[in-house]
């Protein structure tokens, strides 16, 4: 487990090396990104395959004071869920680099932002301090805007801005909820385990839970706050779509599971059914809308919203089978959706220069 913090360190290091690499050798940024991604994947696989500490209980990886006056620490920890999602991130990162090999414009900037996003994702999955988790959460969102706005395609400025606005609106809700929890708890700490062990009054949880849950669930494609996802997927470059569906949407679901649910158990009990209904609505709506799309990428994008609805529904079951199913769906959807977007981008569009299903009639058959 002690190897896992290196996934964050190596991703940051790779991002800075790619950015500062000599311009005359900009093509080397591809190899820097590939080497960095492969290294982090190997670390995750090594822990998943051989570390006996990988299990249900959190294992502290690093814990050092960061802002002592506010009780903020650089606290990294992991359990079985975290490790699996770290491995998923590594797989998505390696695949994304390989499917970005044809990028020609501003290579150093592209792969630097790419690795910065990956570092943020690793940080979220390994953070045990809420303030640290929020910092990494934002770090994963900001590069996504530039990747879409600069290297995207269809309505890239619109798609990037819509994704950013929805993401930051959700983040604002999360930040308000976390600050209120910090102040009302009176414990002078952002440590997740400590705050979960001392829950607030049920009356406070009744409004804090939906605030924080919705804030995270926006990024998970919760209906009806999901409309950023299809436009973002379609506008993003191939690797961007792969990361957005493969790991970025999982950050929202992970925040719901890791933060909102354990911090506000009484609020969760009150809001379980309404959010379960919204999850079902997302499943049905995403599936029905995907059926009538003419753009191949929109089909996959709306189906991703439907699949994430199953993740949120599994969380709302509040039983071991449902929670395990939600995590399994996060991993399986991350792999499948990433491959589907790669297939559309590199194997269909790059060869036919169209995503219109009416013009791809042979594929429809």
List the helices and strands and how they pair.
Blueprint: H1 5-20, H2 28-50, E1 59-67, E2 72-78, H3 80-98, H4 107-126, H5 130-151, H6 156-185, H7 192-197, H8 202-217, H9 228-235, H10 238-263, H11 265-291, H12 296-316, H13 320-352, H14 361-364
Antiparallel strand pairs: 1-2
Helix pairs in contact: 1-2, 1-4, 2-3, 2-4, 3-4, 3-10, 3-13, 4-5, 4-10, 5-6, 5-10, 6-8, 6-9, 8-10, 8-11, 9-10, 9-12, 10-12, 10-13, 11-12, 12-13
Number of strands: 2
| Number of helical stretches of at least 4 residues | 14
Helix content: over 70%
Spans of at least 5 consecutive residues with low confidence: none
Question: Which class do the helix and strand fractions yield?
Answer: mainly alpha
Task: Characterize the largest beta sheet: strand count, sense, and whether it forms a barrel.
Answer: 2 strands, antiparallel
In one word, what is the shape?
globular
Taken in chain order, the helices and strands follow as HHEEHHHHHHHHHHHH
Oligomer: single chain
Instruction: Provide the residue-averaged pLDDT.
Output: 85
Distance linking N and C termini? 48 Å
| Strand-residue proportion | under 5%
Strand order of the largest sheet: 1-2
Rg, nearest Å: 20 Å
């Amino acid at each position: 487990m002690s190897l896992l913090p290196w996934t964050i360190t190596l991703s940051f290091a790779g991002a800075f090396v790619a950015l500062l690499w000599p311009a005359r050798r900009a093509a080397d940024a591809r190899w820097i990104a590939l080497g960095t991604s492969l290294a982090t994947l190997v670390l995750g696989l090594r822990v998943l395959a051989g570390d006996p500490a990988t299990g249900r209980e959190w294992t502290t990886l690093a814990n050092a004071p960061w802002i002592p006056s506010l009780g903020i620490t650089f606290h990294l920890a992991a359990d079985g869920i975290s490790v699996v999602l770290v491995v998923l991130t590594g797989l998505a990162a390696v695949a994304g680099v390989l499917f970005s090999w044809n990028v020609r414009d501003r290579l150093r900037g592209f792969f630097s932002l790419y690795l910065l996003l990956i570092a943020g994702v690793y940080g979220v999955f390994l953070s045990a301090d809420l303030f640290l988790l929020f910092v990494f959460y934002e770090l994963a969102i900001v590069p996504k805007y530039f990747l879409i706005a600069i290297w995207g395609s269809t309505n890239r400025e619109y798609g990037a801005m819509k994704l950013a606005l929805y993401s930051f609106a959700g983040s604002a809700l999360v930040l308000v909820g976390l600050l209120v929890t910090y102040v009302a708890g009176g414990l002078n700490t952002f440590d997740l385990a400590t705050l979960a062990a001392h829950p607030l009054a049920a009356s406070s949880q009744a409004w804090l839970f939906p605030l924080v849950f919705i804030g995270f669930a926006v990024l998970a494609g919760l209906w009806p706050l999901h409309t950023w996802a299809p436009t973002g997927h379609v506008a993003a470059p191939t690797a961007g779509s792969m990361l957005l569906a493969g790991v970025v949407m999982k950050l929202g679901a992970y925040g719901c599971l890791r933060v909102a649910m354990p911090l506000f158990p009484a609020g969760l009990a009150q809001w379980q059914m309404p959010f379960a209904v919204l999850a079902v609505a997302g499943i049905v709506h995403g599936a029905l809308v995907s059926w009538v799309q003419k753009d191949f990428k929109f089909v996959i994008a709306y189906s991703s919203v439907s699949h994430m609805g199953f993740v949120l529904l599994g969380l709302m079951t509040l039983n071991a089978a449902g929670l395990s199913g939600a995590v399994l769906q996060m991993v399986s959807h991350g792999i499948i959706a990433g491959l589907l977007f790669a297939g559309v981008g590199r194997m269909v569009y790059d060869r036919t220069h169209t995503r219109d299903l009416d013009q791809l009639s042979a594929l429809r058959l």
